[in-house]
Amino acid sequence: MCCLKYEHPFYTEFASRAPAVAELVTMEDGDGVFVGHQAPADSVVIRMHANGATRCCSLCRLWCSPAVCLSHHCGAGAAAAMQGPDSAAPV
Questions:
Q1: Which range marks the domain in which residue 47 is found?
Q2: pLDDT in tens, 1-54
């Protein structure tokens, strides 16, 4: 039980960013529903409506893009802003 006191803040922070199970999502290739969380991987599992396939998707991919993310979940946009407009930010 002692390790849980160190892990609890990590899971609490993940839960504050992650969508709820059964929440609907629209992806670039169709609609789906969140069916699970993978906190250690900072990702969620989505079941696509079109074919029933499941896939893992990072929270960063769901919420952020370097063009708009300056302070959101992953900071990808902040990294791009620090590098300047002529350099490509790592994704």
A1: 4-63
A2: 567 777 888 899 899 888 899 999 888 888 999 999 999 888 999 999 999 999
Position 88 in a domain: no
Nearest to 56, CA basis, from 47, 44, 66: 44
Confidence (pTM): 0.64
Domain presence at residue 80:
no
Sheet holding 30-38, edge to edge: 24-27, 30-38, 43-48, 54-58
d(CA 12, CA 7): 9
Q: What does the pLDDT read at residue 85?
A: 40
- Model confidence at 65, pLDDT cuts 50, 70, 90, reads low
Is residue 27 domain-resident? yes
Rounded distance between C-alpha atoms, residue 28 and residue 80, angstroms: 23
Q: Are 77 and 65 in contact (CB under 8 A)?
A: yes
CATH at 56: 2.30.30
